[in-house]
Amino acid sequence: MKKSILNIALVAFVTLGAVSCKDAKKEDASTPIEEAAEATDMATKYTVDTATSKISWKGEKPTGSHNGFIKISSGELAVADKNVQAGNFVIDMNSIVSEDLDGDMKNNLEAHLKGTVEGKEGDFFNVGEYPNATFELTGIEGENGTVTVKGNLTIKDKTNAIEFPATVSFPGDTMLLKSETFTIDRTKWGVNYGSKSIFGDLGDKFINDDIELTVELHATK
Asked: Lipid/polyisoprenoid-binding YceI-like domain spans which residues (predicted)?
C-alpha cells in the first residue's frame, strides 16, 4: 500500500514538473513589453489615413504560401522636427484579406483566419472575441528617415515587444512610414494552429511559425 502511494506521488510530481517546464519554456519565448513613448508639447499630431494604410502579410508552409493584407482602423503619430516621438494604431482583424486566391478558396481561407467557421474559431485570430489588434510605439531610433521602430504589439490580448526597420518621409503635409519586410513568431500571441513547435506529430503538414509583415502608414496633419 505504501509503495502504491509512493508511486502515485512520484507520477504526480513528474507530471507537475513537466507541465511547469512546458509553461516556463513558453514564458521564456515571449518578449517583455516596454513603456509607451511620450510626445513633447511641441509635437504635431498626424492622424493615420485608414483608407490607404495597411499591413501586408505572408504565411508559408511546405506546399506553398498565402499572402494578403489587413487594414488599419485608427491611429495617430506625434512628430516634432520630422522625428516621430510617439504613436499607436489599431488593426482591424475583421479586415483580413487574401490576395493570392479567388472564389471559394479565398473565402474559405479568410473565414478560417478570422475564426468565423463554426468549431474553428480559435485556430487563428478569433475575431469574434478579439476584433482588434494594437501597436503602441515605445521608441524609434535612427536618422535621415532610416529608423528602427520599437513597440508593443497586442494580438488576442497577448502583448510582446517587437521592432522593425522602416523609412519615414514627409511629402507635403503628409507622412509616410513604411517598414521593410520583417517577421514575427505567431505562437508568441497564441496563434498555434499547425505549428510544429507546439504540436510534434504534424509531419510535413505544418504552417511556419514566422509570419512576414510589412507596415505601411499614411498620415496627415
From this structure: 45-220
